[in-house]
Amino acid sequence: MIRAACLDDATHFYETQRVNRPSELVNTFTDSFYFAKDLLGRFVYANQLLFDYFDLADPEEAIGKTDADFFRGEITEQIRCDDLSVMSGRPMVNKLELIEDGRGEVLWLVTSKIALKNRDGQIVGVEGISRSARHAELNMKSYNVFYECVNYMQKNFRQTIYVDKLAGMACMSVSTFERKFKKQFGYSPKQHIKRLRIQEACHLLRAGLTIQQAAMESGFCDQSYFTREFRAIMGKTPKKFQRDIALT
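^ thats the sequence. predicted structure below, dont judge the formating
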């Protein structure tokens, strides 16, 4: 019944809005997520790869949901802001994004979006394609500017990292670096470091380490602080995360 309702919702959108359904070709993509949303940000279509990634039993399970059902916090705010800009007539081309997927994984994605129009030329939503930046053969200025400092953060997040050192790697002042980094990725360099630590903590908890061990090994020196930060990013406490792992 749920699957039928989802199918009806998707069909209803394409029929009532007089929009051509995407080609089945998008379901053959092996390195790109394709998606389409209505004006309210609800998914009306997404390709098989996207559903496979999020371990959904059926592709239609995401129909009617929003990014908030898959991502967390300021990530969803940034995505919605980009969608609204695109629907106002400004296409987004090859934007580099760092997306935390709600499971402790951080994805490097290159995303392009355009307004979704019906047969009368009216904007009825947004559609786009995201693909892994690690496999994209694009000489993007933004990727080159931030690659060295982001790579440094990924290798050294367990240690103290100073923003002025990162800014120096990008040949920018601290204020310029922080402003451009946040504009590019939707959050600050310090927030990204926290996300990397939480990502590592998730891996360690899945591997069977205790909460205290995961906190120490991922770069947190205070377990109560670790718990607060974990809950802020993951939407649940480390203990609840452990329980959920045990149930899967």
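The first strand starts at residue 32 and ends at 38.
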